[in-house]
Amino acid sequence: MLPHQTDFLELLLRFEVLRFGEFTLKSGRRSPYFVNAGQLRTGAAIAALGAAYAAHVRHHGLRCDMVFGPSYKGVPLAVATAIALAQGGSDVGYGFDRKQAKDHGEGGVFVGTAPAPGMHVVVVDDVITSGQSIREAVELVRGAAPDVVVSGVVVAIDRQERGRGERTTAHELHSELGLAVHPLLRIEDVVTWLHGRAPDGRVLVDDARAAAIRAHLAEHGERSGGA
Considering 56, 60, 99, 102, which one is annotated as catalytic? Predict the structure, then answer.
């Protein structure tokens, strides 16, 4: 992994955003790990999060006039990423959507910067599982003004699980939307990097845990021939 990715993983572990054990997800599926970005709830934590996203935007050379985060989890991501980009010399807009369009005052569904004609927008989100929030965000941004270009999507973690068919959600989004999803971390990379290591004095991913996560991927990840 690149330095900004290992820094990001250490951030997730330090604030217990990424935890290992036995968890029941919202879908009802059992998982050997859990991701809760809501744990990043201090100024220092959200600043480090924004720095990681901004570093990933720069690493992939994504053209960016605006950072868009879907409400509600994407709001602090968009703000923190825009701040970090500005600190690196790229002062860009940020925006997010209202859950319900405002019919008074300035009106509309966008808060902050709204996509303008010809603008290049980077969409940020937390964890990619079903991809529904990303689909909705891209549709909203592209429909906001003529010739708006979504340069790419940056997410914290790709669970690498199947979407609606045999392929992973990231592959489906690339095929459907014609743009790349750039995860800061894939769960497979996390397991490989952490296996046997003790970043805080404890081995978080031992042989048994690594095997459990890989078995989960084998069951719920992309099936052979789906790529």
Answer: 102
